[in-house]
Structures are given as structure tokens and as C-alpha cells.
């Protein structure tokens, strides 16, 4: 038995089975598996001829099928890709470039000029369309492929750091292969799967579509960002391309259901809906389930540092208005440890920090040993030999059914009027009201005020009155602000930092 140790084995195998099937498309431009294979191998050969090996290579391109082929080309050359996007703030891009010190930046015609405005630390800009004209060096690529081991890195994606400096999470072949194998089994992907990708390609969330596509010979549509501003248009796009599988952040799903989209159009081909990154308001979840009674719904949980998602829960029962959908249990080949502040395993029903051990752990933060050492630590339950676990910073507990439930971020708990409060609990109660579409809480630590933002068909005064019947006095927001829309991050999550800046700027 040959154990897979390279992510491109998926592509090498599937190109022989389905060479002319569409692999990736944005609805306008498409690439077949043969085109992805051939173009990626030309890019790998270009890197070999440049002498760039086992280095970070920045991919600064528009979100399009060619960008995915560039990712695979970087891996084919024995390097690891660092995705950068125009929509990132310029300051963040420069911090990433400073960190990775890449010898080469792959661009397209639309991004070249912007890339030239940065200090590339001596890195060379090369156009994708020039690289794919490189003659493939079969012998060199074969040697690179055979010399690779499963702990070699394949990408670095940057997450936000509490200090304002982004952290570059480096993942390897082993953790990505393990994740794709487990996720594919849980969500039952196959060759007929048609993904509708919501996430930007500079987040690890895109792994859920990119790699299963080449594993099964499936198809991924990169849904245009503009669709997510118009829910009806978005669902019409899903139907036009017969998309049957989506793995989206909760905010993207809520945006569709909260604005009564299903009264106009229903995503009639969807059979698999996976969601994560945030708590799904039960009221909005019920709307999705009612619209798609035959679809499966799966809650996914996991941090970037653990290679995508590490826990899953198939929604198979009804939930009360004040309940949260569990995150369930870990995928195979990883364990979740619920640890208390003093390093012991939390008792039944007791809250603890969610920590993860196993193959899912990434390699750590690139060029950042200090923060790596703070988050990737020795397992306190094991004193016999070195074993790292990742501390997620998320709090969880087990419910009476023995299912893991996400409670909050450690930094999302506040102390207010002498009470420990979960801001998420306030949001859950707000979201249960029929007039509410979306809500988000922030905390003004300087003034000791809970601030609630909401979108809905109710006045601030009436919302205050309604919450007085649902929340204890110490949990009532000190200020309630009605807005037209909740700001979202590029990945579609609620942008609480933007809300804080807006509040502080008043």
C-alpha cells in the first residue's frame, strides 16, 4: 500500500480520468483538469529553472481559476504559496511581504501595477501568462515530487493578530491531506459535487472546495463577490450553475434567509449545506431548513491553525430558540481537549478552552517563534514525551447529549456590573425576535458599556422593551444602534473591529 504524501497526487490521478471536465470556473472563465495540470506544471518548471525551491512564493492575483492553478504550480515546483489579494489593506499586504521575503511574486495583468507599489524585498514580479508558456521539465518535476515528504509546507495564510501584526499559518501536505480525506467522508463529496465557493482564496476556508475538486473530479464555481450583496441574484447564480454543495460562513447564509429571499427564489439543486465560523441563529437556520427539507446541514468548527475545520455536527434534531447548534465531535485522527485554566480536563458541563491535538495541527506561525510558542504548547495531560496541542482561545462545554458546544471566544467574555457575560448570549436573544435580521454586540471597556448594533424592522425603543423581558438587567445593552447593514470581513464574518471603530469615531 502506498501512503499518499503529496497533495498533487489528487491532480496527477484525476487528469487521466477526467481531463476535459471543468475543474474551476467563475461563471465566465473556466479551466479543465487538463489545463490546470498543464499550466501548473509549466509554473513549477519555471520556478525550477529560476532555482526557487522550498521557498515562499507570493500569488498576487485576481480571484479566478488561474489563481488556483498558480497555487498548484507553486507546489509542483517544491515551494509553498502565499496568497495575497487586492482587497487586503495595503498595510497588511506590506506586513505579509516583510514576513515571507518571497523571491518571486506571481501576478496577472490586473494586479501587476499594484504589486509594483510595494517593497518586495528584492522579489521579482512575474506574470502568470508568461510562466505558463514555460516548457515543462518532466524530469525535474518528477524529482521534486519524489523528494517531497508530507511535512513539507504547501501554503502560508495569514490570520489577524491581536497586536495588529498578521500571523502566517504554515500548513503541510500531511495536515491538508488528512483534512480533505476526513471532510470528504463526512460531507459525502463525489464526482457529481458542484461547489459554490464563497470565501476569498487567501483564507484556508477555500480548502473545502479546492482540494476535493481534484480528489474526485468535481467542479468548483468561484461565486463573484458582487452576488453576496444581492441575495436573489446569489441564489439565481446557484441555480444557473446547478450548484449542489456550499460550505459558507454563517453570515453569508443569514444574509440570504434574513431578507426573505426564499419567497422569491429557492436554491433548488442544493443537497449539502455546511456552515461554520460563527453561531447560526436558530431562527435563520430554520428558514434554510424549511426551504431545503431534503438537504443535509452540517455545522463545522475549526481554526486556521488546525488546517481548516476539526469538528463537525450533522443537524438531525430540532433546537429551542435559545439553544446553539453543537459543534459535535472531532473528525477522525484528531482529539479535542477541553482544558481548564489550571490545565486539567474540564468536568461534564464545565467550560474549558478548546484545545486540539493530532495531525490537523499546522507547522506554526512562519518566522514567528514567539507567538508559535504561545499557541502551540506541550499537552499538559501528557508529561511522558513531547506532544504539541493548539490552544484555540475558544471556550466550550459538553451538553447533556455529550456533544461539544461552542460557548464563546475567551476575549468575547466581559466583566460588567460585577457579572461575567457572554456577548454572544445577548446576540442569541436579540436574534430570536421576529423583527431582527442580524445583530452584533461590542463592549466599550473604557466606559463600561455594552453596545448592540442591529438590522431589523423595529425601533431602538421597542427593542429595548423587548429585551427587558428576555435578559437580566445586568445584561441589557447600554446603547442600541439601528443600522442599515452589519459590516462583514472579507471572509463574510461579522466585522466587530469595524463596529468598534465606528462607535469610537462617533
Describe this structure in words.
- The protein is an alpha/beta fold.
- It has 16 helices and 26 strands.
- The strands form seven sheets. It has a five-stranded mixed sheet. Strands 16, 17, 19, 20 and 21 form a five-stranded antiparallel sheet that branches. A four-stranded mixed sheet has the order 2-1-10-9.
- Helix 8 (about 175-185) packs across helix 9 and helix 11 crosses helix 12 (about 280-290).
- Kindly provide the radius of gyration, computed on alpha-carbon positions and rounded to a whole number of angstroms: 23 Å
**Which sheet architecture does the biggest sheet show?**
5 strands, mixed
Low-confidence stretches: none
Q: What does the average pLDDT come to?
A: 92
Percentage of residues in strands: 25-35%
Number of helices: 16
Secondary structure: helix percent: 25-40%
> In which order are the strands of the major sheet placed?
11-12-13-14-15
The helix/strand class is alpha/beta
Shape: globular
The N- and C-terminal alpha carbons lie at a distance of: 64 Å
Q: What is the number of E strands?
A: 26
Amino acid at each position: 500500500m502506498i501512503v499518499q504524501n503529496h497533495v498533487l497526487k489528487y491532480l496527477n490521478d484525476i487528469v487521466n480520468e477526467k481531463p476535459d471536465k471543468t475543474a474551476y470556473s467563475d461563471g465566465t472563465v473556466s479551466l479543465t483538469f487538463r489545463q490546470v495540470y498543464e499550466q501548473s506544471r509549466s509554473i513549477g518548471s519555471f520556478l525550477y529553472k529560476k532555482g526557487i525551491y522550498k521557498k515562499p512564493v507570493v500569488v498576487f492575483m485576481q480571484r479566478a481559476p488561474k489563481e488556483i492553478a498558480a497555487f498548484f504550480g507553486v507546489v509542483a515546483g517544491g515551494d509553498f504559496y502565499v496568497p495575497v489579494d487586492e482587497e487586503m489593506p495595503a498595510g497588511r499586504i506590506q506586513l505579509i511581504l516583510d514576513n515571507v521575503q518571497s523571491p518571486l511574486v506571481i501576478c496577472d495583468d490586473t494586479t501587476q501595477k499594484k504589486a509594483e507599489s510595494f517593497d518586495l524585498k528584492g522579489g521579482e514580479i512575474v506574470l502568470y501568462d508568461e510562466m505558463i508558456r514555460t516548457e515543462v521539465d518532466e524530469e525535474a518535476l518528477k524529482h521534486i515530487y519524489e523528494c517531497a515528504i508530507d511535512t513539507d509546507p504547501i501554503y502560508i495564510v495569514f490570520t489577524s493578530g491581536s497586536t495588529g501584526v498578521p500571523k502566517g499559518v504554515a500548513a503541510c501536505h500531511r495536515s491538508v491531506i488528512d483534512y480533505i480525506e476526513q471532510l470528504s467522508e463526512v460531507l459525502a463529496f463525489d464526482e457529481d459535487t458542484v461547489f459554490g465557493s464563497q470565501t476569498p482564496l487567501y483564507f484556508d476556508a477555500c480548502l473545502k472546495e479546492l482540494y476535493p475538486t481534484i480528489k474526485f473530479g468535481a467542479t468548483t464555481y468561484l461565486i463573484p463577490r458582487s452576488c453576496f450583496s444581492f441575495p436573489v441574484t446569489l441564489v439565481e447564480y446557484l441555480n444557473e450553475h446547478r450548484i449542489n454543495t456550499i460550505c459558507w460562513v454563517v453570515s453569508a447564509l443569514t444574509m440570504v434567509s434574513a431578507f426573505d429571499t426564499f419567497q422569491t427564489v429557492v436554491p433548488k439543486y442544493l443537497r449539502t449545506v455546511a456552515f461554520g465560523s460563527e453561531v447560526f441563529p436558530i431562527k435563520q437556520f430554520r428558514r434554510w431548513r424549511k426551504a431545503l427539507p431534503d438537504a443535509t446541514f452540517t455545522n463545522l468548527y475549526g481554526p486556521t491553525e488546525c488546517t481548516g475545520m476539526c469538528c463537525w455536527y450533522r443537524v438531525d434534531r430540532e433546537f429551542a430558540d435559545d439553544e446553539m447548534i453543537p459543534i459535535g465531535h472531532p473528525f477522525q485522527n484528531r482529539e479535542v481537549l477541553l482544558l481548564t485554566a489550571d490545565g486539567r480536563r474540564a468536568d461534564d458541563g464545565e467550560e474549558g478552552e478548546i484545545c486540539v491535538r493530532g495531525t490537523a495541527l499546522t507547522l506554526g506561525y512562519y518566522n514567528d517563534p514567539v507567538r508559535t510558542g504561545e499557541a502551540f504548547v506541550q499537552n499538559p495531560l501528557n508529561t511522558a514525551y513531547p506532544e504539541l496541542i493548539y490552544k484555540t482561545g475558544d471556550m466550550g462545554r459538553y451538553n447533556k447529549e455529550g456533544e461539544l458546544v461552542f460557548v464563546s471566544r475567551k476575549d468575547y467574555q466581559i466583566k460588567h456590573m460585577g457579572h461575567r457575560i457572554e456577548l454572544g448570549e445577548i446576540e442569541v436573544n436579540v436574534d430570536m425576535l421576529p423583527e431582527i435580521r442580524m445583530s452584533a454586540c461590542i463592549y466599550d471597556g473604557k466606559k463600561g458599556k455594552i453596545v448592540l448594533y442591529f438590522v431589523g424592522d423595529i425601533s431602538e425603543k421597542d427593542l429595548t422593551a423587548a429585551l427587558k423581558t428576555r435578559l437580566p438587567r445586568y445584561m441589557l445593552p447600554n446603547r442600541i444602534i439601528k443600522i442599515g447593514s452589519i459590516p462583514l470581513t472579507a471572509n463574510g464574518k461579522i466585522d466587530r473591529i469595524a463596529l468598534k471603530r465606528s462607535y469610537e469615531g462617533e
